[in-house]
Write a structure and sequence with these properties.
By secondary structure, this protein is an all-alpha fold. It has a single domain, classed as MFS general substrate transporter like domains (Growth Hormone, Chain: A, Up-down Bundle). 78% of the residues lie in helices and 0% in strands. α8 (220-250) crosses α14. The protein is globular and about 50 Å long.
Length: 416
């Protein structure tokens, strides 16, 4: 089966294009926003507040995003949220470029951006399996992630050069433009709508939330992995998103940091190609087991923060974490009913992101007490312990991968 088979389907092409454009712009924002805050105050705590606020608002509104995605046309929800995000990032870029930005202003705009992302993310994830036949779902997940990571591998090093050459404001402006372009791509997504006969009563909002919770908690493999990544992502976000730029600004600079982020996404691209070809009976077990190298960049930052050490560590981390990413997406789409998938995705995202703002906000004060390098190293140890905890679940180790028969004919272009 061709690895490019998903591209035969117009809905997948439009969805993948929008997500890829977003990823390219966000790779600029990750570098530019960090150095914009550091240029204003030089404080890791302030950077943690800005980054953590965006994540916090994502967490608060993710569940509602999942409910809305199961109620409304997903592609239209994504168009609206991306336009709001474009406006918020455009305002942030203007403030930084005109040297009028303050930390409270950036925090407020980060809150708007995080809310928009929360409304878009469950819809985007739940829509992807509907754009291709079931038989090429694994290839679609892998190809989508390869495209996302390819955008980041080009975006991160370019962002480092742009920030160093003309300042972080222009990097944020690129992100704002990407949201607007992505909204146009999402508007073109068309998938078959379920046939409805007779009047349909929609349960109230909290009943929908409760249904999603029942689906989520009834699967041990699901909540165990989500709890594990709650810990791992908190450690990663605090160590990499906050303390990584702090260490970089004192040693190898924004260009070196962009190169390190690019190396990680390069590993993820190659990892996606590998994951596309794998045929495993216990896909989830394999995916979780490959998460141990996720700790390598954190451990290296805490012991020997040199570009020539961090680049290979980031590459290996990206290569292996992508095995988990494809395995996780495919497993959820195989084992969760399609009409509840967006809500379950929202609980997955909520759990995975829940501790991230805590990690991002707390890591600054903790690093003042324990030291930056010690704090980053400790974050790496937490990642290792989280992976061990996930693998302790029998359901994670034994959940089977559902196989589909090979597809014969490509799906025709669908209509609304």
């Amino acid at each position: 089966m061709s690895a490019l088979a998903p591209l035969r389907h117009p809905a997948f092409r439009s969805l993948a294009a929008g997500r890829t454009i977003n990823a390219f712009g966000n790779s600029f924002a990750a570098v530019a926003l960090a150095f914009a805050v550091l240029d204003i105050t030089g404080s890791a705590s302030d950077l943690g507040l800005v980054v953590g606020t965006r994540t916090l608002l994502m967490v608060v509104f993710l569940l509602f995003g999942g409910v809305l995605a199961d109620r409304l046309p997903k592609h239209l929800l994504m168009v609206g949220s991306n336009l709001v995000a474009a406006l918020s990032q455009g305002a942030a870029a203007t403030l930084v470029l005109t040297h009028t930005a303050t930390i409270p202003m950036l925090i407020g705009l980060a809150a708007v951006n995080g809310t928009a992302a929360a409304l878009s993310m469950p819809a985007s994830s739940a829509l992807l399996p509907r754009t291709v036949p079931d038989e090429i779902r694994q290839q679609a997940n892998a190809l989508s992630r390869i495209l996302l990571n390819s955008a980041q591998i080009f975006g991160a090093p370019i962002a480092g050069v742009v920030v160093a050459a003309v300042g972080p404001g222009w990097g944020i402006a690129v992100d704002a433009t990407s949201f607007a372009l992505a909204a146009g791509a999402f508007a073109l997504v068309r998938v078959p709508q379920p046939t409805v006969t007779g009047p349909v009563e929609r349960p109230h909002l909290f009943a929908d939330l409760r249904t999603g919770w029942v689906e989520f908690r009834s699967r041990e493999w699901l909540w165990v992995v989500v709890v594990g990544f709650c810990v791992a992502n908190a450690a990663w976000s605090g160590g990499v998103a906050v303390l990584g730029p702090v260490i970089a600004s004192k040693s190898f600079g924004s260009q070196g940091w962009g190169l390190i982020l690019g190396a990680q996404t390069a590993g993820m691209i190659i990892g996606g190609v590998i994951a596309m070809r794998l045929r495993l009976r216990r896909m989830l077990y394999f995916g979780v087991a490959t998460c141990f190298p996720y700790a390598l960049p954190l451990l290296a930052l805490g012991t020997f923060p040199r570009v020539y050490v961090l680049v290979p560590c980031a590459f290996v981390a990206g290569l292996m974490i992508e095995q988990f990413g494809v395995a996780w997406e495919t497993t959820m789409q195989e084992h969760v009913p399609a009409d509840k998938l967006a809500r379950v995705y929202s609980y997955d995202m909520l759990g995975s992101l829940l501790a991230m703002p805590v990690g991002e906000v707390a890591v600054g004060p903790i690093s003042k007490l324990a030291g930056v390098e010690t704090t980053v190293f400790g974050a790496g140890v937490l990642v290792v312990l989280a992976v061990i905890g996930m693998l302790s679940s029998r359901d994670v180790r034994t959940l089977p991968h559902k196989r589909s028969e090979p597809v014969v004919e490509p799906m025709e272009e669908s209509v609304p």
